[in-house]
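Review form for a predicted model. The reviewer records the input and the model, then writes brief findings.
Reviewer: anonymous (R2)
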Amino acid sequence: MEFCVLASGSKGNCTYVASGKTAMLIDLGLSTRDTVNRLKEAGVAADTVQAVLFSHDHGDHYKGVEVFSKKFPSVRLLANEGTASGIDCAFPKARLNWEIFETASAFDFGDLRIEAFSLSHDASDPVGFVISDGQASLGIVTDFGHPSPLVRNKLAKCDALILESNHDYEMLMASDRPWSLKTRVTGRSGHLSNDDAADLLKSASPQRLRLLLLAHISDECNTHALARQTMQHALLSIRRPDIKLGVLYQQNISARFTV
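Model under review:
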């Protein structure tokens, strides 16, 4: 299985995942032009994408769907009922053709096995994913404020993981953001801080993990260096300096990883 993160952050999220004859996107928070161009930069032709799998109904995860589905009408759109309904409300004239999956379920799409599981976030029915090709598993777990036992259980089976490390608590509190936004971000339905992400990784103790990418890093209330440093300390504390650690960006695609 291979993957490439096309964008990660509050202005748009999209990840390419492929195995064998199967290719899909996880979320579609970029414009169609940006999505096509970033896929091309990653060495992928946009017309080879067979499906888009949506994690939740916030605009930075779905805003490109209307135009993209018109340009590539054969692409299948997969979401749970709550997410599909939320996205439909944003595009009432689009008549998007959804394929609905259950939140707590596992299903096959081509060569990939997908597990969807609940996350604590202020969206209609947000989910994380563990995607497997039968040999390795990739976890995609962003946009959540509470690391539940279910999340820890799912992370324990991952060989590669895209994990939210959204903000530094002190930077957030010192920012000029309104108090309502600060309490939303730090709440159980908000976003993981650097320390939260580090604590989750330590408690999950993922023995199979070889690659960890920190995602959804705030431009205003975090730095990539600080997110990396916090997680490096966590990895050392559980004697896992062997895990390859990277950070993801809003403006640049990641490397094209194989697991």
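Findings: The chain has a mean pLDDT of 97.
Further findings: The longest strand covers residues 112-118.
Recommendation: see findings above.
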